[in-house]
Hints:
There is one protein chain. With 264 residues, the chain is of the alpha/beta class. It has 2 domains: 5-166, NAD(P)-binding Rossmann-like Domain (Rossmann fold, 3-Layer(aba) Sandwich), CATH 3.40.50; 169-259, ProC C-terminal domain-like fold (Orthogonal Bundle). The chain is built from 10 helices and 8 strands. The chain has an 8-stranded mixed beta sheet, with helices on both faces.
Amino acid sequence: MNQTLGIVGGGGWLGGAIARAALNRGVLRPEALTLSWRSTPPRNMPGVRLTQDNRALCDGADIVMLSVRPEDWPAVAHPVPGKLVISVMAGVSLETMARAHQTTRVIRALPNAAAEVGASYTPLVAWFGATKADRDFARRLFEACGAVDEIEDEAHLDYLSGLTGTGPAYPSLMAAAMVEDAVARGLPEAIARRAVNMMFVGTGRLIETGNPDPASTVETFMAYRGVTAAGLDAMTQAGLPQAVRAGLSAALARTMQMNDAANS
């Protein structure tokens, strides 16, 4: 690829993680990448251009990525007529970005914190002006961070911002509850953390290699009617499925509030 990419917010954790993944996987050469930063300059990226001038970055790059908080976006929404714009922000629609940046070549993507270890799930959706080459580049870029799906409905992307966009947050909540219970029952905290962490790590590896259906996995353990089934029964009766649905509904509602604020 001979085109250059500029990441507005490349000094942040997500922008920096995407940049490092692209470099490590050979998607971009260092000289083809420019990162802007606000408080702390990116480190350990030799050959990459660094700047605090977002307008100059937008003017000089062939492709512009926006990796800032949605509330900070209006200040960096510089026009880039005809260029490809890729957003990793929640809550700012394709149409709003197309209008503000004066281009119909717009792609939204939602990687998560696991991009830092090459294990993100990234859904992406393209505006009508994005070409096949634009979508192919976006897919290669985010495949460097993990798994990618291109979806057709932007509303599904908004839902996924509160599901996969949360990265390790939801599993970590459950893990923290398990550690807390183990410690309350007298288990040393270090052992409790290691036991719970390895359970989640092992589950992730099983899912990655075997791609099991979660519902089928639950049914398999329930069929044994043993220790695990007793725990699953109690969690279900205590309302775990309903709590998950409530959490996802709240996350979606927050996303829509952000949409309304950004797109008004």
